[in-house]
Amino acid sequence: MGKTLFExxxxxxxxxxxxxxxxxxxxxxxxxxxxTSPQAFDGLRxxxxxxxxxxxxxxxxxxxxxxxxxxxPILDQTSKVQIQTLEKNCNDFGIQLFxxxxxxxxxxxxxxxxxxxxxxxxxxxxGDSHTSTHGAFGALAFGIGTSEVEHVLAxxxxxxxxxxxxxxxxxxxxxxxxxxxxxxxxxxxxKNIGTSGGNGTVIEYKGExxxxxSMEQRMTICNxxxxxxxxxGLIAPDEKTFEYLRGRKYTPKNYExxxxxxxxxxxxxxxxxxxxxxxxxxxDIAPQVSWGTNPGMTCDVTExxxxxxTFSKGDQNQKKGxxxxxxxxxxxxGTPITEIQIDRVFIGSCTNARLEDLIExxxxxxxxxxxxHVRAMVVPGSQMVKKQAEELxxxxxxxxxxxxxxxxxxxxxxxxxxxxxxxxxxxASTSNRxxxxxxxxxxRTHLVSPVMAAAAAIEGHFVDVREMDLN
Amino acid sequence: xxxxxxxxxxxxxxxDVIIPGQYLKVHDYxxxxxHAMEGLDPDFxxxxxxxxxxxxxxxxGCGSSREHAPIALSHSGIKAVLALSFARxxxxxxxxxxxxxxxxxxEDAYSDISEGDEIDVNIHTNEIKNITKNKIYKMKPFSExxxxxxxxxxxxxxxPD
Lengths: 471, 161
Prior knowledge:
Order of helices and strands of chain B: EHHHEHEHEHEEEH
Oligomer: heterodimer
Structural class of chain B: alpha/beta
Helix content of chain B: 25-40%
CATH superfamily of chain B: Aconitase, domain 4
Largest sheet of chain B: 7 strands, mixed
Distance between the termini of chain B: 27 Å
Strand order of the largest sheet of chain B: 4-3-2-1-5-6-7
Number of strands of chain B: 7
Radius of gyration of chain A: 21 Å
Number of domains of chain B: 1
Structural class of chain A: alpha/beta
Number of helices of chain B: 7
Number of strands of chain A: 19
Strand order of the largest sheet of chain A: 5-4-3-6-7
């Protein structure tokens, strides 16, 4: 019987295999950031261990870095300590670090692909759940906790139980590819399979609807695999993948011979078997807006906030969850999504802060101004994205429209740096999680695509971006 | 393991409510424990006792890979979380650092056990005894590798045979 792409990558990374048991898997790349690594390095020191492959380990600071003026000192003392600790750890253990002043600094899942560190067929881990992003290149990439970070630092391996392969077919063509984005595809998938629909699996996204996407859009899809509970998300590499990585800073010297190998080996065999299947037809999907407190609580922009009893389809826990979510979000069932007024707009995060995201959002913003009651910000995913965007004049478009134009970092995605919502504030956000308090205590998050966030910034409430003239 | 139950009757308790993002800079585990469950239940810290259990619905611990989540619960005194299902990273983190036991239960235990009930969890017989209600429920056994890591006392102490 044939093998899935996931099984092929898994099999080529087995160091030790036990029958019906776990496997010791070799890790090709380890990405490190300031928040989930300090205890791991402490653990190494305590046990007199070294980093086994510093050359395969790369670090940056993204989670708690301020995104305003980089020439100013970091005011938050605990953040400052965490940042300095990463500098010391990388120095002590010989790890390449892109620090706060580096032109290569940025969100770890944005810089990995941009630097050519992310490669097809490889295994990639990072102490961050959105490591699934790198699966867009046909890499097996997943988030790990700090104990596992320490294990990988020490041994370059991990004990893992083999996840089950899950096939998601995305069929059809988007009618308006500027308005219907990769974010709308993945939110539609999560809305349908649920936030635990992918638990214990590695999803492979297939079909015309995926092949049509650019590499940056594919990253948005794989990024949110974790929001469906999957260990990882994968897309088989194709010519777009190979072209994207060609000539980047760390792209290997023997790249073309690797491409020859990848082209014929990194795909699921026709007779391979998946444990689970799901198909999404995208011909008629609408822009998506989340209304609740997990990414599965999402609906079309043309719909209204659902009633808990309809949403739950008879499941008591789902009903309670929806009631609690509506209370937290201060929303009444039956309210049209387009009548929801917003206070803040955040265009950023490892989900949607790449160059294309900013280009698409700028088309909505160009020549317009943000609504007077909205504070909006754009936080490029990396300093490289920022520079490229500025070369295209995007900074000027956003600033002219009264958006704040920031330095790279995780920013308002996760409420652990100075960019946070105040209690009760409502935000149209291009990030990945709308959990209670995610963007700051009491803050209310609506997940949307970059063009939907930009449109909401202009109008002051959600609008169907398909109805706007794009510049 | 005997203790009392703190029950959260809902699904999808995420890592951001277990330990909100602003505390990921805190390295002192005792201080981290002061903020456990703060995003969902600000009274948690005042009511939790050493040896207590959390009981909850499906997909417990979904979201971030922050190991701070099981650490904060563990240092609050929680010995095990009993849930209908777990998000995988939380599950692994709980076991890898030997912070607490993630125990998968069935619907009968979930609906029957009430807040405050005293229960006795036995991972050798895979049984949960409800001392308050004098009932016994089955728990799902750990897989081979998870059982061995738990027995060893965490990922770093685990040595494959």
